[in-house]
Amino acid sequence: MALDLFAGIPVADYAVALEWYEQLLGSPPAFFPNDTEAVWELAEHRYMFIERRPEHAGHAMHTIFVDDLDALVAQIADRGLDPAEQETYSNGVRKTTYRDPDGNEIGFGGAPS
Prior knowledge:
The chain is of the alpha/beta class. The protein contains two helices and eight strands; from the N terminus they run E-H-E-E-E-E-H-E-E-E. It has helices spanning 14-25, 69-78; strands at residues 5-11, 31-34, 37-43, 46-52, 61-65, 85-88, 94-99, 105-110. A four-stranded mixed beta sheet has the order 1-4-3-2. The chain has a four-stranded mixed beta sheet with strand order 5-8-7-6, covered by helices on one side. The N and C termini lie far apart (33 Å). The relative contact order is 0.24.
């Protein structure tokens, strides 16, 4: 079964969010469906998008697992963003969480170090 994933993040101020997500993800969006949405392709057929929807802003919670969490967190720090939280679960799995200007949570997870 073919599968595409689109994970949406509602934001209040599109321009501010666009800049923040470019900083977090390290690239401009892959495409713009319209004037109030921007889409990043995180991996083949796996997309994350922001959309101006102020009435819903601040309620998204997404976690993306990556191969090298330490390298990604260092790259994001080099772009000027610091995590809001870092945790290690009892099984050793780690999670680093960032919060956008609206309070949406974008987490990156990784295997035990």
